[in-house]
TrEMBL record:
Location in the cell: Membrane
Natural source organism: Linum tenue
UniProt-listed CDD domains: MFS_NPF1_2 (cd17416)
InterPro entries: MFS_trans_sf, POT_fam
Name of the protein: Uncharacterized protein
GO cellular component, one term: membrane
Segment forming the signal sequence: none
SUPFAM superfamilies in the record: MFS general substrate transporter
Molecular function via GO: transmembrane transporter activity
Topology of this chain in the membrane: Multi-pass membrane protein
Cross-referenced Pfam families: PTR2
Length: 529
């Protein structure tokens, strides 16, 4: 398979896994709750590991090994179907775990207390720390076992670890704080849009406290009470009371598709305000993804020996560890040293705002693309001195600066994104909030595959030659990196406009309990497996 085809396939699979989180988040927030979705998805992920390992052990389920100097055999239709079937279970597992695990962990903190709020802030950092550490182990130890020992063992280790984590998860069931689902949050959004459309001819009110606005919040509402804001006044029309509106004895409207509360309107405004900020992350995702694909291809065409006289070559995919290592080392320093210092200087909780952290990540992403382009230029120049080898005699360690910058960019932007979506979405949509992060990743994966294919198609046959051929020494990968840096600069300008316009959601005052008493969690849990 060519490098362009492999890159596109990886992007499509990753995109599908991330896109599945939207479905998982909807089912979680609407019907089953985070615990049940996590339970079902975890079991699904465990069950798929067996068939994947069996496919490696059974010769009939995979094509024969490639013979050097000869084209590799393609998988048969049955072999490919078996593989795709296994991938479907992986997608189901990802769709349930990714939008729920972080929010489920954050649910364990009490947002009413100062210690709970600080604990939540640190939790996002340490969650990503744990995640990157796990990835770091997988791209070193697991990749080594798969490439140099046995594919079957290399797939069996993750299967065992997934089974172990699943067992630990179920063991802690009685200790969890479990938030019950509150019904479809998307229905409430749709009601506001429909009601505002029906009352579009009414005149918007300038005073949020006049009697025309319908202020109603159920006693057991999960969401914090939001004050009226002046943005998107057209949506306020959904809360204007008219003579045609009727009410139930407890105060709720008899026609919820015609009259909505100020609370519902403000929750929709929260979502609308987030969308432009969310869109700025897509180009950032695309840039970062290149290190996971073309960064590996760069390593493949570099000297990966640990010494000039040695024979052992570091697997190309293992170089991604420098991204994870930079992130793993940076998070404790930032959380325990830099944040307390910034809090003293700025007087703000967290030191700097979430949008400021996202902006720093975007800037680091631009520098990452520039450095990647310069390193590729140098690698090609060195490789040209010994064209017969096909690889640059300089070590692949030259890739470390761009990989470290990638890790630092993720440390600022990714973590800030996750925290931003969790805190700025209405509480009843927190699983959807995390799914938005992965949906951005999904869209970026598809667009990255499209962009790579488009650049390859346009530049093939041009005077300067194909930018992205299989042999990077014959291509212009550095131009591709510089193009992404230019797009990153434009994206940064767009982000600054969005950040300047954005209004943070107020903390509000919770008017009802969250129905998440840990002592009653046994009664609240119903496994859906």
């Amino acid at each position: 398979m060519s490098s362009v085809s492999a890159t596109t396939l990886i992007n499509v699979f990753n995109g599908t896994c991330n896109l599945a989180t939207l479905v998982g988040a909807f089912l979680c927030d609407t019907y089953f709750g985070r615990y049940n979705c996590l339970a079902f998805a975890s079991v699904s992920s465990v069950l798929v590991r067996g068939p994947l390992s069996h496919q490696i052990l059974a010769p009939v389920l995979h094509p024969p090994k490639c013979v050097p100097g000869q084209p590799c055999s393609k998988p048969t239709a049955a072999q490919f179907t078996f593989l795709i079937s296994s991938f479907i279970f992986l997608v189901i597992g990802a769709g349930g775990i990714r939008p729920c695990n972080l929010t489920f962990g954050a649910d364990q903190f009490n947002p009413k207390t100062e210690s709970g709020r600080k604990g939540t802030n640190s939790f996002f950092n340490w969650y990503y720390f744990t995640y990157t550490f796990a990835v770091m182990v997988s791209v070193t130890g697991i990749v080594y076992v798969q490439s140099d020992v046995s594919w079957a063992i290399g797939l069996g280790i993750p299967a065992f670890l997934m089974f172990l984590s699943c067992a630990v998860f179920f063991w802690g069931t009685t200790m969890y704080v479990i938030v019950k689902p509150q019904g479809s949050p998307l229905t409430s959004v749709a009601q506001v849009l429909v009601a505002a459309s029906r009352k579009r001819t009414l005149k918007s009110t300038e005073n949020p406290h006049v009697d025309e606005l319908f202020n109603y919040l159920p006693v057991k509402s999960l969401n914090s009470k939001l004050g009226h804001t002046t943005q998107f006044k057209c949506l306020d029309k959904a809360a204007i009371v008219t003579g045609r509106d009727e009410f139930n004895p407890e105060g709720s409207p008899k026609q919820p598709w015609r009259l909505c509360s100020v609370q519902q309107v403000e929750e929709v405004k929260c979502v609308v305000r987030i969308i432009p900020v969310w869109s700025t992350a897509i180009l950032f995702h695309i840039a970062i993804m290149q290190q996971q694909t073309y960064g590996v291809f760069q390593a493949l065409q570099s000297d990966r020996r640990l010494s000039t006289s040695g024979t052992f070559r570091v697997p190309a995919a293992t170089y991604i560890i420098f991204t994870m290592l930079a992130l793993t080392l940076w998070i404790p320093v930032y959380d325990r040293i830099i944040v307390p210092y910034l809090e003293k200087v700025t007087g703000k909780e967290g030191g700097i705002t979430m949008l400021q952290r996202m902006g720093i990540g975007l800037i680091l992403g631009i520098f990452c693309m520039i450095v990647s382009g310069l390193v590729e230029e140098y690698r090609k120049h060195i490789a040209a001195t010994k064209p017969g080898l096909g690889i640059a005699p300089k070590g692949a360690m030259w890739l470390v600066p761009q990989l470290v910058l990638t890790g630092l960019a993720e440390g600022f932007n990714y973590i800030a994104q996750v925290e931003f979506f969790y805190k700025q979405f209405p509480e009843g949509m927190r699983s959807v909030a995390q799914a938005c992060f992965f949906a951005g990743n999904a869209l970026a994966s598809y667009l990255s595959g499209f962009l790579v294919s488009l650049v390859h198609h346009i530049t093939t046959g041009s005077k300067r030659g194909d930018w992205l051929p299989d042999d990077l020494n014959e291509g212009k990968l550095d131009y591709f990196y510089f193009m992404l840096a230019g797009l990153g600069v434009l994206n940064l300008g767009y982000f600054l406009v969005c950040a300047r316009w954005y209004t943070y959601k107020g903390d509000g005052e919770r008017v009802g309990e969250m129905e998440m008493n840990a002592k009653e969690s046994k009664k609240n849990v119903h496994l859906v497996v």
